[in-house]
Amino acid sequence: MGSTFMVTSSYRQTYEESLGNPGEFWLNAAAKVSWSAPPRHALDASRAPLYTWFPDGVLNTSYNALDRHVEAGRGDQDALIYDSAMLGTRRRFSYAELTGLVARFAGALRRRGVGKGDRVVIYMPMIPEAAIAMLATARLGAVHSVVFGGFAPKELAARIRDAAPAVVVTASGGIEPTRRIEYLPAVEEALHLAGVPDLPVIVRAREGFAATAADHGWQDWDSEMAAAEPAAPVDVAATDPLYILYTSGTTGTPKGVVRDNGGHAVALTWTMENIYGAGPGDVMWTASDVGWVVGHSYIVYGPLLAGATTVLYEGKPVGTPDAGAFWRVIREHGVNVLFTAPTALRAIRKADPEAALLRDYDMSSLRTLFTAGERLDTDTFHWASRSVGVPVVDHWWQTETGWAICANPRGLEELPIKAGSPSVPMPGFRLSIVDGLGVEVAPGTEGNIVLGLPLPPGTLATLWGNDERYISSYLQAFEGCYATGDSGYRDADGYVFVMGRTDDIINVAGHRLSTGAMEQVIGQHPAVAECAVIGLADPLKGQRPSGYVVLKSGVEVSEDVLAKDLVAMVRRDIGAVADFKHVTVVDALPKTRSGKILRKTMRQIADGEEYTVPSTIEDAGVIDQLIGSLRPGGSGD
Ligand code: COA
Ligand code: AMP
């Protein structure tokens, strides 16, 4: 980290303060949050390696996101703008109005038995009621778990089983460009699969869907609201959970990342000012989904904690109705900060390579374009910088961390932007790049990216009900560190370059998926002896899953028929979002002598990268046989 601009910069000073005196640094940051009892202590290390922040602080997150701004005289300011490109509708909610709706829905949840610490599963499309349900849950000191609408009933059931909610909140359905997705049959199936068919369900009705709440014996949102008394914010300990968000692990069982109340409010408030440079009166639009961490942090909590206006967009970057949709939303709502995934920019570029549609819109409100979810490839970076004409800032983070590990903190200091890099570590992230033995590698050398413990506020506290899995999944591989599962390198200026995962997680259109989960589904087909799913490079979606299967001996089935079966099974069990569409039958899979499938080598061959075959391979001949299937027309070198 030796270059001059960094030595003198306020970024550098802030970063060093955060590592040198974390207690003071984060207690100062905590002063920007409203507490019922302000914390006097920053960190509780008594259960290390499990750490908690602000152990004696008491607050309510919903109060901080809503009431506080009304009390400060900003009740009339827009809190949330709902823009549905699917329906062609817009609706604005002031802070006062949103606070009223959230308080009332909190009352409705309370009537259905939800209290402090209880869980509420939210399975909703991108409609304002999704954010209202989240904030209402938080208001009661209860814990929400939002499940992305693109997941199939089995995935929803796994989350319901693990979180054991008191209530499920859903809507009639979601709207995709080519079809309407009925949610209610999926919820019904999930409740049965989870063994809780009688769980209370509240349904937000939407026009144009077949099933109604009454058909299932469930409650209607509007009736529940009408019957409810508004509920006041309930005090919780800073260390109490705010939400559980399930994310793909390397096995088929998702991990329930637990976020606390206090650390989350403090960290997100810091990021709004220092990373995004956004505060009261600013409009932030995060074009993601409330089902993902990016949606939790920057569609719902971050902008509202900061007293800014958030845009909740139901639509796609292209096709709703065209590749000018993003530019229209920016102009129409005066967006100052846009946050999206690189895949969305690639989709726009594909449809409108010269960004001709952009010329129809006044984009002067836009200050910065942030991207995350996957690496911002340099081509897309240059195209977006040229087309949009504002700084394009990649930043790197994970469901687990809840906010950026590396970013270019535009509010704090406009550091130079380097194509291909999410810039530098954010406060509290003691980042190192180490080899397999945990030894730090030299600048320019790729290795495992690890973060020294404790992680800063706002990062995961543990995995829901499973401290052991948290420790074994993240904290054991490298002594005293959290393993990010990503590999990368640092350049001589201290800029980090994140190159990819070291495990079996892939990233398809900014969606994090487990190849292990897909293999588990495929392995259930009666014709399949064994299989491997790998993520191949895809020019639009970053990666796409591709399955390689070995048939049981004696089985006669055409590759086409089998492929159709397997594609349908993955869609049924995981969801359309897995985007699993490619299957190849092979004679054998390359394995080590201990039986581990060499997925990385397979991926390197298929993507035409250089590869080395590990010396532990069981039968090197399998690689030669596979090359034709993996890389049509390829040779072995
Ligand atoms: N509910 C139900 N189904 C959904 C869904 C949802 N919320 N979201 C996606 N799907 C379905 C799609 O309809 C599609 O189904 P299909 O196979 O029948 O066509 C499938 O899942 C794959 O969808 P998607 O990945 O969105 O691909 P696409 O080809 O429809 O669109 C992009 C491509 C790039 C436009 C789109 O992926 C996109 O907007 N990506 C941005 C993602 C993002 O913001 N991620 C957040 C990370 S920060
Ligand atoms: P998720 O938990 O769904 O946010 O996915 C997190 C993973 O996505 C990370 O571990 C990375 O592999 C990848 N990722 C997210 N943002 C970036 C980025 N800016 N650059 C590189 N990879 C990223």
Can you tell me about this structure?
The chain is α/β, with parallel strands linked by helices and 637 residues long. The protein has a domain at 509-630: GMP Synthetase, Chain A, domain 3 (2-Layer Sandwich). Helices cover 32% and strands 24% of the residues. It is built from 21 helices and 32 strands. A seven-stranded mixed beta sheet has the order 5-4-17-16-18-19-20, sandwiched between helices. The protein has a five-stranded parallel beta sheet with strand order 7-6-8-11-12, sandwiched between helices. Strands 23-24-26-27 form a four-stranded antiparallel beta sheet. Strand 4 and strand 5 form a beta hairpin. Helix 2 (10-20) crosses helix 3, helix 6 (95-111) packs across helix 7 and helix 15 (342-351) packs across helix 16. The site of adenosine monophosphate (AMP) has 19 residues, from strand 26 and strand 27. Residues 149-150, 174, 176, 181, 287-288, 292, 294, 316-318, 341, 343-344, 347, 372-373, 509-511, 576-577, 579 line the site of coenzyme A. Residues 11-65 form the Acetyl-coenzyme A synthetase N-terminal domain. Residues 518-596 form the AMP-binding enzyme C-terminal domain. Belongs to the ATP-dependent AMP-binding enzyme family. GO terms for molecular function: propionate-CoA ligase activity.
Blueprint (SSEs and pairs):
Elements: H1 4-8, H2 10-20, H3 22-30, E1 43-47, E2 50-53, E3 58-59, H4 61-65, H5 67-74, E4 78-84, E5 89-94, H6 95-111, E6 119-123, H7 128-139, E7 143-146, H8 153-163, E8 167-171, E9 173-176, E10 179-182, H9 184-193, E11 201-204, H10 213-216, E12 219-220, H11 221-227, E13 236-237, E14 241-247, E15 255-260, H12 262-274, E16 283-286, H13 293-305, E17 309-314, H14 325-333, E18 337-340, H15 342-351, E19 368-371, H16 378-388, E20 392-394, E21 406-407, E22 424-425, E23 430-434, E24 447-452, E25 462-463, H17 467-475, E26 481-490, E27 496-501, E28 505-508, E29 511-514, H18 515-522, E30 528-538, E31 542-551, H19 559-573, E32 582-585, H20 599-606, H21 621-630
Parallel strand pairs: 4-17, 6-7, 6-8, 8-11, 11-12, 16-17, 16-18, 18-19, 19-20, 31-32
Antiparallel strand pairs: 1-2, 3-13, 4-5, 9-10, 14-15, 15-25, 21-22, 23-24, 24-26, 26-27, 28-29, 30-31
Helix pairs in contact: 2-3, 6-7, 6-11, 8-9, 12-13, 15-16, 20-21
The structure holds coenzyme A and adenosine monophosphate (AMP).
